[in-house]
Amino acid sequence: MMRPERNPAIVWRLEKKHYDEAWEAARNDEEDFDDKGVLTLMIKGGIHQLNLVGAEIWTRIDGTKDDAAIAAEMAELFGWEPGETVEAVRAFLEGIASRGWVTLS
Amino acid sequence: MTITHLASPVTVNWGITARCNFVCSHCFSRLDQAPELSSEDARRVVDILADHSVMFLNYGTGEPLLRKDLFELTAYATAKGLKVTMNSNGSLIDEAAADRIRDAGFHGVGISIDSADPATHDAFRRMPGSFDKAVRAARLLRERGVPLSISSVICKINHTGFPELVSLARSFGAHTIDLHNFKCSGMGGLNKDQLDLSPDEWKAFYESAVPMRESVTDIDIAFDDPILSLLGAEDKAALVSGSVCGKLSLYVKPDGEITPCGFIPITIGHILRDDFGTMWESSPVLDHLRHKSATGKCSGCSKFSACLGGCTARALAVYGSLEAPDPHCWAEEAEK
Ligand code: SF4
Questions:
Q1: Is B5 on the interface with A (CB under 8 A)?
Q2: Residue pLDDT, tens place only, B37-78
Q3: Ligand 1 centroid – CA B297 distance (Å)
Q4: B253 C-alpha to center of ligand 1: Å?
Q5: What is the number of alpha carbons within 13 Å of residue B125 lying toward its C-beta?
Q6: Residue in A18, A46, A51 closest to B7 by CB
Q7: How far apart are CA A36 and CA B153, in angstroms?
Q8: DSSP letters for B193-239
Q9: Rounded to the nearest whole angstrom, what is the distance from the C-alpha of residue B325 to the centroid of ligand 1?
Q10: pLDDT at residue A59 in the model
Q11: Residues 6+ apart with CB under 8 A from B301
Q12: 3-class SS of residue B259
């Protein structure tokens, strides 16, 4: 079990219009719904974007929810199988932790 | 993931005033004394930027501290979630001003220091005593915990002396030193022959500055130059292909007109009269900057996809063309 906390030095925003468009594409089962950057992060002069799935995980990180809680919400949101979702969420969190975007406790 | 989907600029550079108490040799705005917006209109600007989720608001152009409403406006912008920074010559930052800067919630302040040698800095800034005031400002800000960066314009006076500038910035506790490349706009255009480096000098500068950036860990050395692609340095430094103007940032002039950056004098609209989101999405000028085509030696250059012809402002200032190769580029012909 891991509980992620965002690096407070990161400044981020949701790209609302693109986020809505990505959701529209996801609802229409378009395969490329995950190709778009919908959330922008700035850290130490670097800029990065997350796709829809990444953004939905990122916005659920509040310092209190652990990986299982986030995965449960993601599984419900996207209609995914819960077991696989936990693995995917964990892999994502470990990936962004290695970049210094979150700490895991 | 490639940065392609920004619904609005990440950063807006705002020339909040055109007034300045200095007459620096390189100033791009000194020759364009636009009237400034009222306090009420300035708050409307903040509302528009906040509504469009702009992340960073940076006051540049003129000396921001000459605006009487600076601290109120900053507190207003900060309360709306904007991260506010400013560039200042430091001359007006005494203890009381430093307290107000901290209290207004500035996300950071950049103090201009162009040489570690006081006399050289003072001559460049054409203001005796300006080095000592800038140093005082840097120390007062750090004593109050305000995040500090040092801004230096690289040109003839300092292109070999930048390691001393880095040491000086480090001694203040600055988190970053921004080594801006010289732009031949405004006064910089008039003084280009005395101040700008030759392409070979730019090459020599970057060949020593880039390795230093890689090896120094206690302070960030930042450049903003797309022709760094020539050294294969784009992987870590560049946020987008080519220059950031019109892709990550916009510039708002003191009177509210919007240009892609402070050095490109092409108005694309007005912050209070035109729809900001539409301008960002559909301006033909921004579209042009985002989809430049290669001309001259850029045609066939293997760096073009990262460099996009380099700094558009310099090409425009020197050759009168948005498409021309960057005059600082040292490639003899297309890099294969
Ligand atoms: S030739 Fe053009 S594309 Fe190539 S490095 Fe120089 S400015 Fe950039």
A1: yes
A2: 999 999 999 999 999 999 999 998 789 999 999 999 999 999
A3: 7
A4: 30
A5: 31
A6: A18
A7: 37
A8: HHHPPPHHHHHHHHHHHHHHHHH--SSEEE---GGGGGGT-HHHH-S
A9: 6
A10: 98
A11: B294, B307, B331, B334, B335
A12: strand
ipTM for this prediction: 0.82
Task: Tell me the nearest-neighbour CA distance from B282 into chain A, angstroms.
Answer: 15
Q: Cβ contact (<8 Å) for B5 and A11?
A: no
Q: What local confidence, expressed as pLDDT, does residue B237 receive?
A: 42
Strand runs labelled E in chain B: 11-15, 56-60, 83-88, 108-112, 148-154, 176-181, 220-222, 249-252, 257-259, 269-270
Distance from CA of B128 to the nearest CA of A (A): 33
CA dihedral over B192, B154, B265, B253, signed as positive or negative? negative
- One-letter identity of residue A58: W
**Considering the entire predicted model, what is its pTM?**
0.89
* Helix axis angle, A52-60 to A67-78, nearest 10°: 140
Q: Does B96 touch chain A (CB under 8 A)?
A: no
Amino acid at A62: D
What residues are in contact with ligand 1 under a 6 Å CB criterion? B 227, 229-230, 297-298, 301, 303-304, 307, 309-310, 325-326, 329, 331, 334-335
**How far, in Å, are A15, A83, A91, B5, B155 from residue A26 at the CA level?**
16, 21, 22, 17, 51
